[in-house]
Write a structure and sequence with these properties.
The protein is α/β, with parallel strands linked by helices and 250 residues long. The chain is built from seven helices and 14 strands. Helix content is 24%, strand content 30%. α6 packs parallel to α7 (223-231).
């Protein structure tokens, strides 16, 4: 399992941290997690193609997690000399179907022309697919926001999306090989709908994860400071994500 960070930041402009996007490679499968603005360009820069995406998971519908869905749908219709015929499955939070319908109503060229589009709104719980399983939990960031647990080939990757500290998220991240967890702000920052470094540290320790990948850092959040704060509560490995960070789970 290879995890490539395509966007380690937020909606706010920041060098080396773009809006949220992740690619997970499992054998021949390419799974996308969130599609913030510019995700397709960074996917290309990482050596992969949007053509290979057959399943995309959407945590919630804030702009920094979904804007490149528009580009993805249009690209599948507009590539010279290539026609997409393989089905595309979009899976994610409640409201995703209406959101995609809105995209197609607003933007010409986004309605699938030669392929089938399947949209699945996931409920909290486990969902099995050929070769992998996805488990989801509500995160408390919004009333419909989801975190994802991916299990494949004996490895576990968990993506928090945007979240608050909760027992549900700790349970989802249990014994994960890699926990990609938002760490928007340092300890002490007052927020009701995001995680701070101390919350990440407590979650990771409670879940017993092996490695934490700190992501979704706001521009003024200092890498070294939040890493130290997480490490004060969690004794596993801590990686601070930037666009292009790759983590291999052998």
């Amino acid at each position: 399992m290879h995890v490539t960070v395509l966007g380690a930041g937020t909606v706010l402009p920041c060098a080396n941290r773009s809006p949220s996007g992740y690619l997970v490679n499992i054998a021949e499968e390419r799974l996308g997690f969130d599609m913030g603005a510019g995700t397709l360009a960074r996917l290309h820069s990482a050596g992969f193609s949007y053509r290979d995406l057959d399943k995309v998971f959407i945590s919630h519908l804030h702009s920094d997690h979904v804007l490149d869905l528009i580009a993805l749908l249009q690209a599948f219709n507009a590539t010279p000399g290539w026609t997409r015929t393989a089905p595309l499955t979009l899976m994610g939070c409640k409201g995703l179907s209406d959101f995609v319908a809105g995209i197609m109503n607003l933007f010409d060229g986004t309605v699938p022309e030669n392929y089938e589009l399947n949209i699945v709104e996931l409920t909290a719980g486990r969902h099995d697919f050929p070769g992998f399983a996805i488990e989801t939990a509500l995160t408390g960031h919004t009333d419909n926001s989801l975190a994802f647990r991916l299990e494949a080939n004996g490895r576990v990757f968990v993506y928090s999306g945007d979240a608050i500290e909760s027992a549900a998220l700790a349970g989802l991240a249990r014994k994960a090989d890699l926990f990609a967890c938002e760490c928007s702000f340092p300890t002490g920052f007052v927020t009701a709908d995001h995680l701070t470094a101390d919350g990440v540290g407590r979650l990771a320790a409670s879940a017993g994860v092996k490695r934490v990948l700190l992501t979704h850092l706001y521009p003024d959040t200092d890498d070294d400071e939040v890493a130290r704060q997480v490490c004060s509560l969690f004794d596993g490995d801590v990686i601070v994500a930037r666009d292009g960070t790759v983590v291999v789970l052998p």
